[in-house]
Fold this protein.
Amino acid sequence: MVSTWVPDVSPDTPFSLANIPFGIISSPADPAPHAAIAIGSYALDLKLLSQHAAFADVFPVLKNHVGIFEKPTLNEFAALGRSVHREVRRAIQDLLSAETSHPEVLKDNAELRETALHHRRNVKMHLPMSIGDYTDFYAGFHHAYAVGAMFRGPQAALQPNYTHLPVGYHGRSSSIVVSGTLIQRPVGQIVIDPTAEPKQPTTAPSRRLDIELELGCFLATPNEMGSSIKVTNAEDHIFGYVLLNDWSARDIQTWEYVPLGPFNGKNFATTISPWVVLADALEPFRTKGIDNWTPLQGYLNEGREENVFDIELQVDLQTPEGDVTTICTTSSKYLMWSFPQMIAHHSLGGCPMRTGDLLGSGTISGPSMREKGSLLELSEGGKKDVMLYGMDVRRFLKDGDAVRIQGTCGSSGARVGFGECVGRIMGAAPL
Amino acid sequence: MVSTWVPDVSPDTPFSLANIPFGIISSPADPAPHAAIAIGSYALDLKLLSQHAAFADVFPVLKNHVGIFEKPTLNEFAALGRSVHREVRRAIQDLLSAETSHPEVLKDNAELRETALHHRRNVKMHLPMSIGDYTDFYAGFHHAYAVGAMFRGPQAALQPNYTHLPVGYHGRSSSIVVSGTLIQRPVGQIVIDPTAEPKQPTTAPSRRLDIELELGCFLATPNEMGSSIKVTNAEDHIFGYVLLNDWSARDIQTWEYVPLGPFNGKNFATTISPWVVLADALEPFRTKGIDNWTPLQGYLNEGREENVFDIELQVDLQTPEGDVTTICTTSSKYLMWSFPQMIAHHSLGGCPMRTGDLLGSGTISGPSMREKGSLLELSEGGKKDVMLYGMDVRRFLKDGDAVRIQGTCGSSGARVGFGECVGRIMGAAPL
């Protein structure tokens, strides 16, 4: 294991030298959002680094893109393609390693080290990408089955198409926010008494506000409209990954979603973690996903089994009183469809994918009751209490509750993680 | 009726002095996309006009935004708000009228007139707006009923929510193209024999490629995330309108759309007309929409009856042999929900609407068989031939077919129209 000269890097940090995730920061000294990477408790300011005379020598692949880390999003960097991300990540790993081949740039340069290494508590995180379109898939098999059974009964839990194609829907990009943003409880049309006929909606704050534990995937390079991305080339179109909480108002969703899918039940907010873990950093953690017993259409056949990642995922709920309970621990391996399959399917008809587009995996739940990625499942459709520390219980979220998602791979000293994806619920706007 | 000094303005042009729609053009002399308005057979180049010394005098409301018409989209202009659009439209109407109060600027300025008035056949049209999110509603009552009956039978044609809220779904913004762009037939998963169980999809070019006749609405000013737009204020958030063809692959859609809504059946292409007709220009053509027998939730109550527009709509189909048949003539009044109601519903839970967001009305069909805005309806679910000139018939679109949508209001000499929304079908990409 290679070690770093950066001080105070805990062996349990998700931001080890094996990671090097990219994000967008601002600071009191430089309030214009710009690029950084995370290492231990620090953010290395790539804008300041790129102003160093030796930048083009250390990052020869960026010699024609010297201002790229001064931009307010990572889109231009992402658009350079995966081989460039790989070279830049390796060069940063070298710069930060104890045995760096360029000690003069940062390790032995007290002035730049002092200004360019910000303690992360002193920087503000921003959305890492300008997101053109956001698509949310439904690839979490155990979630799709459990929720399908609740909405439509166990006989029709999985629709006939589920094992043939990665089902997904177009989401709302305008309401994607970075971790830490307050989430306002949405008002919407809800049916208080679902047994009454005809159904009578009322306009009220959602009473069934929920989370969805997901992995998000950012696109790097686009395809032209009319062309499709082959499943075996799709990895090359991926920039990296974030944790994603697809906040969901179940009562609004239940009433609105037929026949055209979720709308106001979802579009009030989606939270993502701020640091984009590059695709390369997750490569060592590949594993096999959920078996699909249906023969695949050719365009979905990857010719490999290890097509998902085994990321340990954890969801904590903090009550307004401050008590924290881990309500879910599971793995991102419980997907029936991989991101390459989602990309191949999404572009099959020629739909153009653009740099910065975001794909959500769909809610990730494991087979056991402690592995459910939504309160809808944890409370068995809102029928059972989820027990919390502090003698408290929940079926859905209360005002003042905060939800923190964490995800990490690897062992002590070389962890690759996402940090936190956090949101706290505010009361609804007055009617 | 006020007349214009611009030459050769036919009394039947959709671009009379009563209209003044905005678009984005480029020309061989100036290939960088920039703003223009349409008048008769001409495009008035607003970039060249804004470089005239008197610009700030003629458009005092733009005196701090002199470069606004040099931008490649209309977003910055739209973001200035409806009162600014109103003043600018009025000032342009004055500049172009025979009795203009500023003859020295254009009417009597041969040099600028010569350079700034392009014949429209000499300019290329571009997408008028940078579109953040695209949402497609389902407000065309006769279409929703007819298609619902086909997919789910007449008993369940309209879902219980249909008359309570404007049903809609998030569309794909990356595949919105301007009129004239070739449309490639999408490949997708389709079920050839819908009676076989279990259903077996195959991957093939769509065999049921269709159109959807819609009106599109561009947003001007945003709301903040967490706040909603009141239905009575929503008009102030509207920039203007375009014609929209929501190309649809019915076979792909039928297989994929449960439970999360349309996806690849729609996201391969959406065509819009290039000229944005400002909201003010349509005001004289207000009328009453389709009666809704259900008492409205308060947030949807506009307190007025004339909440839609009576735009005469026409769809022509041109075969590869060149024969043109008008397959539909109807009116945009056949909506059960108005755009202000769609905006109020969309933002009810706090979803932020941004400048340049596009809303589609949903397919507009009238009650009679000649007024159906999709081939699905015209062919009664693909079961009957639609008769065309040239001894030809269609149920769905063939490669080489072109579809032209037109829309116009008002009487000769003062027409307010959209021009054309055109697309021609290319064969599918090789599998």
About this structure: Chain A touches chain B through 66 residues (CB under 8 Å). Residues 181 and 309 of chain A are 27 Å apart (CA to CA). Chain A has a mean pLDDT of 96.
